[in-house]
Amino acid sequence: MIRRRLSILILAILLASMGTQAAFIQPARASTIITIEANGSINPSSAPIMTSDNVTYQLTANLSGSIVIRKSGITFDGRGFAIYGSEDEWGFILNSTSNVAIENTYIIGHTYGIYAQYSYNITLAENNIISNFHGVTFVGSTNSLIAANTISGSATGIRFFSSSENLIFHNNFENNGLQQNLTASSNTWSLGYPGGGNYWSDYDGTDQFSGLYQNITGSDGIGDTPYNFTGSSDRDEYPLMGPFGGSTTIGENVTSFPADYVALIFEHVTGEGVTTASQNDTGPTPPPGQFIVKYFNIETTAEYSGIIRIRIAYDDHGMTPEQEGSLKLLQYNPMIGDLDLNGAIDILDLTAMGSKYGLRQGELHWNPKADIAAPYGIIDIFDLVTCAYHYGERGNPIVLWSDIATSTDTANNLIYGETSHLSIFGVTRTS
């Protein structure tokens, strides 16, 4: 009793000025035109862009206008800030550049969101390209990567003119008037199987099968038939059934891709949210005789019920055929109050719970694992007392882990399972 009382106390983001003639009309002068010059300087110098090495450029505030990139070999990191425009403005303009990356930027309301001409080795990653007339346009541009972007609400999502040998995957093409427009271009639109292609909001296929040829019974988060492009021989061979990046929408049999190595299919989602996944080499102690190949921490803010089907990609490097044949998908069911998931209720759990005291559900830093006692929705004294009551208890790994595996696809390094809730998962083999 004294020990428990003491535990409670411990808490207490022009072409007209460029040398190469554009294939389209030049952009009208924007309210702000910012140029990253060939020598690395930023013009005007007062623009909300910073660099310390003329290699990595970071946006430091939202802005209205256009960004012209003349320098090759740079990374432009929007850091989650937005570049706003109008029908007379272009977002990013690249002409005869190479090895340029644009990432983590909101590009909203321009005629052209991103326009790349006669450029190569361009990377567009994790951008939100929203409500532009044309989302992404490539003219005579090749050998580029377009991945993990959301391109939505535009007249045309993505356009290629004489632009081939580009790789486009894990993008979300949502509610564009024309999702894609290809002229004299041939590109690759997926990573193959099981990596998958892109999410297309107008895809009307089903997901009842899995495997390289989509002929094995069982869903895998990938459409059973390709997404075909009108007027082109290009197609997305493995369209995603849900958005890439973890967005989890309301509906039945909702697919979510929180990471490239995890796909989830929720039976019922009644409240939209975001699903996240991370993989780690360390975690709770596994049951005797089992070796953890990798831990996966999967969480969601969505409200759901029913069965969740899980597909996890694993690395078989160094495994013998016998070890791969012994793979299991285990789920960790932590003890109440074990916030650090180390299999024991200790001072670290009490301290962590104390740091959340007074937080309500939905607030910053809210941790549902700390809400262990009624009234639920707030971290209060009842949660602290409950945690303190169990202070010193340790769990048995045999009891804390359960095997949820339903099948293993060793040809494609995939393991499948079913559960009713999310927590920590471990792909294990015999030790």
Task: Strand order, main sheet: write it out.
Answer: 2-1-6-9-12-15-18-21
Parts with pLDDT < 50 across at least 5 consecutive residues: 1-30
Number of helices: 5
**Mean pLDDT level:** 90
Task: Give the CATH topology of the largest domain.
Answer: Pectate Lyase C-like
Compute the gyration radius: what is it?
25 Å
The structural domain count equals 2
Name given to the CATH architecture of the largest domain: 3 Solenoid
Quantity of strands, as a count: 37
Distance separating the two termini? 41 Å
- The rough form would be described as globular
Helical content stands at: under 10%
Strand content: 35-45%
Major beta-sheet overview: 8 strands, mixed
Structural notes for this entry:
With 431 residues, the chain is mainly beta. It folds into 2 domains: 13-188, Pectate Lyase C-like; 261-430, no CATH class. The strands form 7 sheets. It has an 8-stranded mixed beta sheet, with no helix packed on it. Helix 1 packs across helix 4. The two termini are 41 Å apart.
